[in-house]
Amino acid sequence: MKKASFVAVATAATFMAGAATAGTLDDVKAKGFIQCGITTGLAGFAAPNDKGVWEGFDVDFCRAMSAAVFGDPNKLKYTPTTAKERFTALQSGEIDVLARNTTWTFSRDVNLGFEFVGVNYYDGQGFMVKKSLGVKSAKELDGARVCLQSGTTTELNLADYFAAQGMKYDSVLFDTADEVREAYIKDTCDVYTTDQSGLYAQRSVIADPENHVVLPEIISKEPLGPLVRHGDNNWGDIARWTLNALIIAEELGVTQANVDEMKNSKNPSVQRLLGTSGDLGKQLGLDAAWAYNAIKGVGNYGEVFAKHLGEGTSLNISRGLNELWSKGGILYAPPAR
Amino acid sequence: MAIVKTERHPELPPPASQTGVVGWLRENLFSNWLSTFLTVISIYVVWQAMSTLINYAIIDATFVGTTREDCTGAGACWVFIKARFGQNMYGFYPEAERWRINVGYVLGAIGLFLVLSDYIKNKKWPAIYLFVIYPVVCYFLFYGGFGLEKVETSQWGGLFLTLVLASVSIFVALPLGIVLALGRRSDMPVVRMVCVGFIELIRGVPLITVLFMASVMLPLFLPEGQNFDKLVRALVGMSLFSAAYMAEVVRGGLQAIPKGQMEAAKSLGLGYWQSMGLIILPQALKISIPSIVNTFIGLFKDTTLVLIIGLLDLLSVIKAGTTDKNWLGMATEGYLFVAAVFWVFCFGMSRYSIWLENKLHTGHKR
Description:
The structure holds two protein chains of two kinds. Chain A is α/β, with parallel strands linked by helices. Chain A has two domains: 6-122 and 222-327, 3-Layer(aba) Sandwich (D-Maltodextrin-Binding Protein, domain 2); 125-214, D-Maltodextrin-Binding Protein, domain 2 (3-Layer(aba) Sandwich), CATH 3.40.190. Chain A is built from 14 helices and 13 strands. In chain A, the strands form three sheets. In chain A, strands 1, 4, 5, 6, 7 and 13 form a six-stranded mixed sheet that branches. A five-stranded mixed sheet of chain A has the order 10-9-11-8-12. Chain A has a two-stranded antiparallel ribbon with strand order 2-3. In chain A, strand 9, helix 6 (153-165) and strand 10 (169-174) form a beta-alpha-beta unit. The two termini of chain A are 38 Å apart. Mean pLDDT of chain A is 88; it is low at 1-20. Chain B has helices spanning 20-28, 33-59, 79-83, 85-90, 98-116, 124-143, 158-184, 189-203, 207-221, 230-255, 259-267, 272-302, 314-321, 331-360. Classes of the chains: A alpha/beta, B mainly alpha.
């Protein structure tokens, strides 16, 4: 799923080394909006609704940033980017931040000259099978026929995993996700593999989603997160702490609905977060109410997740790894103090 | 006694089995056993395919409603197209400003009618209107200016964007292609080499690569913050690409004109541009009409490739729509709709070209 034209971008990075300008915050304030790079459409993460407004999990990260900077979650312009051109768009300054389910990898972070500001969704390659097979674990998939999309890292991960487990498989390759799904439904193969978020999205489209099960194993690490250009640490800090603020808000029980009451809270952590004490906002170069505005604008991490991806939406993704560390997940934000 | 019929027997019509529908069927579909067999098989296959499609697209389909939940039938869910119709047609163009696009369509339709139809013989003013005034008006109408709110090209989309891409590329490609074709046949070595180089370079590269270069590589060579508009980059790429193809089409037409025509023009005392404009090009373009329209149709369909640089034309805006979590799984309906829209436009172009060929045929046609 994570195709990237590394050659083009690596060449580009060589040209661009050191060319990033400082002062994105000032530029953004001067033009009055944040230019946010998103996908051209991925269920739950970014998609236009009937009114033509972009909605989704990644979109809400940008809206939170806009709220933190301007006090208004809608001072945004979106640039839909494809997997191939997303990095150039960020490098060339066409966009200020890229929130486009992008996997945080070494080469992207170091070689391409980006700064990943955190992980907003822990994804990973998983397997979906029909319930009727009675398979409970990926370790029982020896000899299975596996449907997948060609030309992605999915293929490599699959080969590695089966080799490591000493199991055999037949892969059936298709060009698009829709074709893979149709083949899987028509029993061309027993197993459908792609990133877990994708599996959930595909399952919601199948006529009988209750008869399909996503296996618990995750065979690859795909930490998805927003990123900014190297060289402007202040802007990176704003992006990083906007994301952290949403996670901390969930830990502290601050929600979109109760954020106004919480301003009167006696809890010093809440006070610091919402700017009623301390000067965290000032240190970022923002208003004292930056985090208050972000939470007021989009809600805390849990609310954003529930709204776009969680149980009750058509995607029906369980929190899993993306649960707070205190509740069995690995979501852990450093303290805001 | 002899019986002699003195008057002529009246002429009878041919037997019923030879004329009309029956005659045509016998002649074309059932003339022998093999024909009959193939006809029956074909009818069966067409019937199978069509009945499935008609069942899916019309009989079992849902037309009424506003959300996915209204689609309970087994067939297509046209509610998806209906609910997002504005988006499919205009992309993210603000709803309050969409009248501007409609005005642009009407003005364009008037211009096209005046230039293309047969009712007005003197095409000078219609041509000036369509090729000089209309693009300027459209620029301000669509982009903003003169008191109209500015609408950035990133908000353009849907069928509107497809039409902008196709018509700008066509308007640029034809004249530029003619110039390149003439340049390639020129006696001046520099001009000829430049034209040959341009044509061969562009034709040797797939359109997707041209677009990709324009979108991904170009920004990296510009100073930071200096950005060409993404749409402009795509337009330049597509126009140059189709101009190179157009040049070869026109060159084919030029080569079909006998040398004597040029010599005759010269002997009348006409200069190069006069002979080209009055004698050679009218004939060359006339015989290239099928290929020119062919290139236009190809170009119109190639506009969907802007998907890879993140411009949301008709196809990609519908693809984006199918990822809205309230409309997951509507890909079939979306693609059918896109196919139908593209077919209407391409078929229209093809019919016009046939009409034009018939109008202009002056004895060469067999």
